[in-house]
Every structure is written in structure tokens, then in C-alpha cells.
């Protein structure tokens, strides 16, 4: 198993199996497992960064004002569905037709 520095993944473009860009890694979600942090999913897409804003009251109000919480463009990719062996070019390990299932459901309204 190779080690990958997470800071090398953030902001990288993610490609589908067919080489189509689906967005950039905007956020990496990890959970505590004893003394370790274990990556559970990657948030990819233009609205992944906006999702972080929704943690604050002001951020949520801005997202609602511009109707950004209702837009497509955020994929929640489970850790085992993203090949990060080449951190400069992460790619999906599932077929392109599976992308719809990875699309995040809007939070809030």
C-alpha cells in the first residue's frame, strides 16, 4: 500500500473511466478510527466547495439566495471508487453510467 499526501489530491481534476473530467477534489472526508483517521469519501465538483459554506448560517443563507443548494455538480465518491495511485490524475473506478448514483442529493430545502 502506498502513502498519498492528501494535500496533493485537493484541487486535482478527477477523471471518469472514459477520461472525461467530472470536477475537482474539493473536500476529503475522514472519520476517526482509534488513533487513525480513515478517508471515507471525496467530494468532487463545482458545488462541493459551496457545500462547506452551508455549515454556517450566513453560508446557508447565501446558498439559498443564489439557489446553489438545489444545483447538480457535487459528487460524493466513496473512498474505494477513486483510484488515487497517481495523485496528479485521480480517476473513478466505476463506469461513467454510475456517476448519477454518486451525485449528492441537495441538503436543506
Concise structural overview:
The chain is built from three helices and six strands. It has helices at residues 48-53, 57-65, 99-102; strands at residues 13-15, 21-33, 36-44, 75-78, 82-83, 91-92.
Task: Label this structure with key terms.
109 residues, alpha+beta, globular, four-stranded antiparallel beta sheet, 30% strand, two-stranded antiparallel ribbon, 3 helices
Describe how the helices and strands are arranged:
Layout: E1 13-15, E2 21-33, E3 36-44, H1 48-53, H2 57-65, E4 75-78, E5 82-83, E6 91-92, H3 99-102
Question: In angstroms, what separates the terminal alpha carbons?
Answer: 42 Å
- Gyration radius from CA atoms, angstroms: 14 Å
| Element-level helix/strand string | EEEHHEEEH
Query: Main sheet?
Result: 4 strands, antiparallel
* Classification by helices and strands: alpha+beta
Query: What general outline do the C-alpha atoms trace?
Result: globular
Total of helices: 3
Q: Low-confidence parts, pLDDT < 50 over ≥5 residues?
A: none
Strand composition percent = 25-35%
Largest sheet strand order: 1-2-3-4
What is the residue-averaged pLDDT?
Answer: 80
The count of β-strands is 6
Helix share, percent? 10-25%
